[in-house]
UniProtKB/TrEMBL annotation:
It holds the Pfam family GntR. The keyword Glycosyltransferase does not apply. Residues 17-88 form the HTH gntR-type domain. Keywords: DNA-binding, Transcription, Transcription regulation. It comes from Ralstonia psammae. The keyword Coiled coil does not apply. This is HTH-type transcriptional repressor NanR. Residues 260-279 are annotated as: Disordered. Residues 260-270 have a biased composition (Basic and acidic residues).
Amino acid sequence: MATLGAGKTASIGIRKQKRADLVAEELKRLITQRNLKPGDKLPQEVKLQETFGVSKGTIREALKSLEVQGLVSVSTGPAGGGTIVEVPLDRTFQLMQNYLFFKDIGIADVYTVRRLLEPELAAGAVPHLTEDDFRALEHTIDLCDPASTKAAAPLDQRQEDLSFHDILAAANPNPMLRFCCELINEMIRQLVVFGNETSSKDHAKFGASNVKFHRQILDAARARDAETVRELMSTHMEDCTHHVTRMKGRVHGRLVLDSEMPRRNRPLIDEHDDSGGDA
């Protein structure tokens, strides 16, 4: 039978934790030691009870803790237990926003980071883009182009603006860079707002500018010209910063609700106007 909290870490205060928290930590060690991957299963609840010498309630509380953290999916019943899952971006974003809620984050802060990261993200994606990726990028542009017969409603257009960047992110092999850019995109979807002083004409200009840059970036990417993609994305981010600043965009400081978590590819919110914002 395993001893909870055994080792040096336990001797310096970990024993003050609840038993369920100790079990959760031991399960994390187990995941690491066994190199478990998404889809792999943890031992059944009965086996875990025997291993750690705790009650069914303690095991379930520990598994619930890991489920809240996004590490496992829990099923109940005689064969119940935890299955390893990949931590979803939405959950990570929610935790990040819990932290940022108490910080003074402005729109300039968001776009400073975008200007630094997006050009490298896009350039790094170029060698890895597939024909399916190119078709998906073209599709997002068509949905945002007022001249296209496929053009979507204004709010959906802003959603597709960001989808363009998500497609590039998904193709980039650098997991840290991809993660940072996807989190910023999610922040823009859910937290950037414009006031009622922003006219539909301003939104239209912003959207048209996004379409222009996205087409140029797509053409350069198809030509496998990573350096041109980097330069175009840098100029695009400068242009986005100009538009968002001119339109008085701001970060709406709020906590993201669990009920919002499954919603992906959400457009920018406009507090008073029906047209969205940025890419």
